[in-house]
Amino acid sequence: MCEAPRPPCAGEAAAAAADVDVVTTGGRRRIPAHSSVLAMASPVLASILERRLKKDRESGKSGRSVVRIRGVTDAAAAAFVRLLYAGRCGDGEEEDDMEKHAVQVLALAHAYQVPWLKRACEGAIGARLTADSVVDVLQLAALCDAPRLHLRCARLLAKEFAAVEHTEAWRFLQENDPWQELQLLQGLHEADMRRRRWRRKRAEQRVYVELSEAMDCLDHICTEGCTEVGPAGRAPAATPCARYATTCRGLQLLIRHFSQCHRKSCARCQRMWQLLRLHSALCDRPDTCNTPLCRRFKEKEQEKAAVMKAGDDADKWGLLVKKVKAARVFSSLANRKPQMNSTSQC
Fold first, then answer.
1. How far apart are CA 144 and CA 138, in angstroms?
2. What is 199-332's CATH superfamily?
3. Which is nearest to 105 in space by CA: 78, 67, 85?
4. What fold does the segment set 16-128 form as a domain?
5. Around Cβ 201, how many Cβ atoms within 10 Å?
6. pTM for the complete prediction?
7. What are phi and psi of 20, to 5 degrees?
8. pLDDT tens across 25-54, in order?
9. Helix axis angle, 267-282 relative to 249-260, nearest 10°?
10. What is the strand order of the sheet 20-23 is part of?
């Protein structure tokens, strides 16, 4: 339910006689109103009333001043005035007004600068949005500067574009406003490219997280041991670790294959070499590390950095190390937060 700063209640408004007539298009209907209520609800109406009342006083005119609301039906103008008096969009008559006249009331709320009513109209129109009406509502949202409604229309247009293409509104747009059609298509293309970039970034982040978990498992296997592989002189663990099913078992199988394979061009062995090299780049205790070849890889990388200039391969490898290191930090923080919550509850 949307609410505005409350105008005078019905009893207070009724205590003073109406001093303004809201006249609809063509003068077909006059709606009695109070200038204080209208001025409090809308700064535009406040400015109009100030000029009108001043002009009436200078001319000596008696009777009610007139405020004209043009461009909408009589029923929509009456609904607009009722909503200004109510100061909210709740149940009952206000809900019926929004149901029947939301589009026209949105235009009035934009023109007369009533933000709360504008947001309510955006929500009401967006809730009834369909493939048949989305093109017209998108143009209305652009004219009325309604960003929330525009976003909902853009999302529906991207989701159901195949259905929108066959609507009468889209065909009319193609025939009469090709520039607007081009803008919509460009927006859809840009939104699709953003989704693809987001998915690609998420996939890359998952790879970095998996590599971070592999580094933790490699350290765990070489330090404590697991069910099939462990450090020299220690029997394998009797029970599997928490990551046995997801990462640890596959890594143990890869280590066993690496220790027994004698082929020079083995893809699995190359993968193990890369994991050992990555561990060495991330390890901050090479002198006491139990992981095989950790210190040797560290020294080799230092020698290579001293004699070689930065190149594409070096830059890519350094970027990979930074990404995996960041993933390890975020993972440790995420694991620490539930532990802190459980400790605080205790």
1. 10
2. TAZ domain (1.20.1020.10)
3. 78
4. Potassium Channel Kv1.1; Chain A (3.30.710)
5. 10
6. 0.59
7. -140, 145
8. 766 788 888 888 888 999 999 998 888 888
9. 110
10. 30-33, 20-23, 65-68
